[in-house]
Write a structure and sequence with these properties.
It is a single chain. This protein has about 230 residues and is of the alpha/beta class. It has 7 helices and 9 strands, in the order αββαβαβαββαββαβα. A 7-stranded mixed sheet has the order 1-8-7-2-5-3-4, with helices on both faces. Helix 3 links the parallel strand 3 and strand 4 (about 85-90). The chain is globular, with a radius of gyration of 17 Å. The chain starts with a helix and ends with a helix.
């Protein structure tokens, strides 16, 4: 049994007991080969629920802050992330973009499942924000299918400022792979990357029911002083 499988055998049942999950459409994730899971992002704990709901191992590129072990809940969460093979990335200017792309390509070229939050950061208000085009670049460069994912309920588990997680039901919905054929072989062009990314975000919105915002979440957070 792999380390991931062993860790999931312990983490998944415990997670489902504390936070009952309603999982839909898991069969849309191909059984073999590289796959990109593109999800909305509501809470720091989101990768855990996608990993538990997906039948295959999922690799995420997570910011280093997620591996902070300052409090007991964060320590447990960080160790759970490490146990299931998640990767940290340095988000300092000039460090994160190239490192994240290299790691993402390596995961997909290895035939694995790669999880990504195209908004780039958690939604500041529960709405779905504009996606970063690095998602489309990865998909169009590697040819990996993109499966949209919608999470619900995770924002109430560990909202900013709360130290002890609350009990709450969680929904994880997988959709059919997004048709990116109109932009095939156009990963090097900015407009096709933007259009393909928007198509993926539209698919996520249909699954989640979220209102879409034509702005980047990071810029809205900066205005609100949320960082």
């Amino acid at each position: 049994m792999s380390l991931y499988a062993a860790a999931k055998a312990v983490i998944a049942p415990a997670t489902r007991v504390v936070w009952p999950q309603r999982v839909e459409g898991a069969a849309h994730v191909p059984a073999k080969g590289p796959v990109i899971l593109a999800s909305n992002h509501l809470a720091l704990i989101d990768p855990l629920f996608i990993g538990v709901a997906c039948r295959r191992p999922v690799r995420f590129i997570a910011k280093q802050e997620l591996f902070d072990e300052g409090t007991l809940p964060r320590r447990l969460f960080a160790r759970a992330l490490r146990a299931i093979g998640q990767l940290s990335v340095d988000r300092r200017p000039g460090e994160s973009a190239q490192e994240a792309m290299n790691n993402s390509l390596a995961v997909l070229e290895g035939g694995e499942v790669f999880g990504i939050f195209p908004e780039g950061t958690r939604s500041p208000d529960g709405r779905l924000y504009k996606g970063q085009t690095g998602l489309a670049w990865l998909a169009l460069t590697t040819g990996a299918p993109v499966v949209p994912v919608a999470l619900t309920g995770t924002e109430r588990i560990l909202p900013p400022g709360r130290k002890v997680p609350s009990l709450n039901r969680v929904g994880v919905r997988f959709g059919e792979p997004v048709d990116l054929s109109p932009w095939k072989d156009k990963a090097h062009k900015a407009r096709p990357r933007r259009e393909a990314t928007d198509a993926i975000m539209d698919a996520i919105a249909k699954l989640s029911g979220q209102e879409q915002v034509p702005r980047f979440a990071s810029s809205v957070k900066a205005e609100l002083g949320q960082g």
